[in-house]
Give the backbone structure.
Amino acid sequence: MLAATLALLLQSAAPATPASAPSGAPFNPRANDLFQADPVLRGWAVRQYDSNRDGWLTLYEAQPALAAFREIADGDRDGRITTAEYRRAKEYIAARW
Ligand SMILES: [Ca+2]
Ligand SMILES: [Ca+2]
């Protein structure tokens, strides 16, 4: 189930719309799903990306958090995050933050 969520979240970065995303990354309306599903990642994301410090990640605050997670997790840069890559990234985050 987690893997399915991940697949949805993390493989959907393919430019469905070759639109102009100024930040580079496409806006992901499901960005918060990853953090809602995982307390470790949520804790990390809130500490790093909760710009207004209210303890919650809005969808907008979650965008850079998701992008950063992808950056950390996708070790082989193939644009997909496997379950193994996800697990490694989570361990890395848990150990470092
Ligand atoms: Ca916030
Ligand atoms: Ca990968």
Summary: Confidence is low (pLDDT under 50) at residues 13-21.
